[in-house]
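Curious: why these numbers?
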Amino acid sequence: MHIFYNIICDTIGIKIFNKKGFITMIKFEDKIMKFEDKIMSVVLLSTVPVICNVIIGLILLVLFNSSSPFSNLLVVYTSMGISFCLIPMLILKVVYKDISKEDIGLKRITLREGIIQLTIVIISLGSIFHFKQPDTLDFLVLILQTIAVAYTEEFWARGTLIYSLKKICNNKIIIIISNCLIFTFITHMERPFIENLLYRLPGSFFITIIFMRKQKLNHSFLAHFLLNILAYGY
């Protein structure tokens, strides 16, 4: 690494053993290392949560070897909560020590927002239940599972990942495209490519744009929740 810095400093006329040049080199090195840390945080956030979710999920499925829907819910909430909420925050805390919940979109929900969003959920779920007439227990389990999936994935993809992308890029279009590609093709890598391209990628663009407008996770969570409910066959 120092050979690399020496070459650069020699090229731009800085003498490494000169006091002023040495200080310049140190500052340059600190700047590069900080940028490398930011790049690494994006790489880690893009891969580690997904891998951990698979590993933790498999371990829990073995421990809770049951066909009970509530056992499956426990597995989903635990594995996704740890993988897509706890681990991403730990990564960000290491790189960006002063990060707050507002920085990742966990902002106060106004009364007006709450009423509007609750009304949308009630009307949507009521309409689905009325017209499709699913089994009540199955529908309840689906709702609870979708809440876990939508919230944890939004916390990770639109909250922590977008925060990390903003630290290395100011272009909103690049941030949106990068976020959508990571969410679509890394998180759902086990799904068919065409399915991801035609369904999940447009949905991801839609949700990410919603988040980028207000920078509030409750908006993107609602959109994600409703899209998933509809996608699961109801």
